[in-house]
Amino acid sequence: MEHGIPNPLLWLERSGFGLLIRDAVLIYPVANVVHVLAVLVFFASVAIMDLRVLGALREDATGAVIRRFRPVAIGAFCVLVVSGLVLFTPEASAIIRNPSFQIKLALIAIGLLNVLWLEHALKRGYPGMTARAARVPAALSLVIWLGVAAAGRYIAYI
After folding, report:
1. Euclidean distance between the first and final Cα of the chain, in Å?
2. What's the total number of domains in the chain?
3. d(CA 145, CA 138)
4. Is residue 1 part of a domain?
């Protein structure tokens, strides 16, 4: 351990992958652009689903909207994970200590738990889980994912 940093993070930075990202001219900037674009696609698809649950976009049934945009959100999230790892790897030991990064990870976990709980509750038909009750986690979802984006943006400034 160097300065309280877990060895796996230093190993990651010094790995061939970490050195490649650090030394290559285009990998990091391209990953950054891909990450930003994936954030846009992810948030747009999540916002469309959440807004439908909240009662907007009534032209299509809620289930149809979710079936259409869930794969888009999942795909964008997968791209975010991969591009995020590329951005994290060359500076893992510094980024892991960044309070904004820690908040971002916590909000991602909360956001994922929120959607998993809502889907489970709707599939199980929990008492009181009506379309109206589903609006609370949908509204929370919008706030949580905006918070993730904001925390991610602040990583560079803290």
Report:
1. 23
2. 1
3. 11
4. no
61-101 pLDDT per residue, tens: 888 999 999 999 999 999 999 999 999 999 999 999 999 99
Provide the residue range defining the domain that includes 80. Answer: 8-155
**Two tokens at 120?**
């489970």
Question: Quick check: is 2 in a domain?
Answer: no
Residue 74, CA distances (Å) to 71, 86, 126, 142 in order: 5, 19, 25, 16
Record the tokens describing residue 81, joined without a space: 């994970």
CA distance 41 to 26: 22
Which residue reads 């893992």 in tokens?
92
Spans of the chain below 70 pLDDT: 1-6, 124-130
Contact at 8 Å (CB) between 107 and 151? Answer: yes
H or E element, residue 80: helix 62-88
The encoded tokens of residue 129 equal 């889980």
